[in-house]
Design brief:
By secondary structure, the protein is mainly alpha-helical. It has nine helices and two strands, in the order ββααααααααα.
């Protein structure tokens, strides 16, 4: 099976499961659900500046989508898995991405197989992009409140979101907790998408 054998080049990463993920020629059968959940729950955002993981961010994006009235389970599912490539590439900061010629091509290549694995559209919905950026701003202001954020995140948007969303922003937990929450949300949204059932609330536990 693809992923069990080491590629004949050096552009690959070994995952939690032991799978060799080929960054030059990734395939859907190299993607392992347990790998994605485990790695996203262990990778901190903002290059490690805050103790806040990609899995937490992904859940916050889902809740921001819900707060905007999104009930389509496929859109919510795309929001949950939009950063799944970072399980394989890490979470590079945008300034570093601008310096790394060719990284966007790698990221797009990995997203292509991840989107197929999770059965979501490859093209991100604009509402997902908007929620992603709002989540980033919320995280910067909440977790960086003792440190200036130099204006890049704009004004503090915390007053514009609900207490429920803020609860997700400020939630705590260890790696196992966030792995479990992300996987539970994934299973819930996949089931809702399969049945085409509008989502009013997402199950995390």
């Amino acid at each position: 099976m693809t992923g069990l054998l080491r590629p004949r080049h050096d552009a690959w990463v070994e995952m939690h499961s032991g799978t060799a993920f080929d960054l030059l020629a990734p395939t859907v059968d190299m993607v392992r659900l347990g790998d994605v959940a485990h790695h996203l729950a262990g990778i901190n955002r903002f290059t490690g500046r805050f103790d806040y993981t990609v899995a937490q961010h992904s859940i916050l994006v889902v809740e921001l989508l819900r707060a905007k009235g999104v009930t389509d389970p496929l859109v919510l599912l795309q929001g949950l898995v939009h950063d799944s490539p970072e399980a394989y590439t890490g979470d590079l900061s945008k300034p570093l991405k601008r310096l790394c010629t060719g990284f966007q091509e790698v990221e797009e290549r990995v997203w292509r197989v991840c989107s197929r694995y999770f059965k979501v559209p490859e093209l991100l919905h604009q509402v997902v992009k908007d929620a992603d950026w709002l989540a980033c701003r919320l995280e910067a202001h909440w977790y960086g409140q003792q440190v200036p954020v130099h204006g890049w995140a704009g004004g503090d948007p915390q007053s514009s979101v609900s207490a429920e969303v803020l609860g997700h922003l400020r939630a705590t937990g260890d790696r196992q907790t966030w792995t479990r929450r992300w996987l539970t949300a994934l299973a819930f949204l996949q089931s809702a998408a399969a049945q085409r059932t509008p989502v009013k609330a997402v199950k995390y536990a």
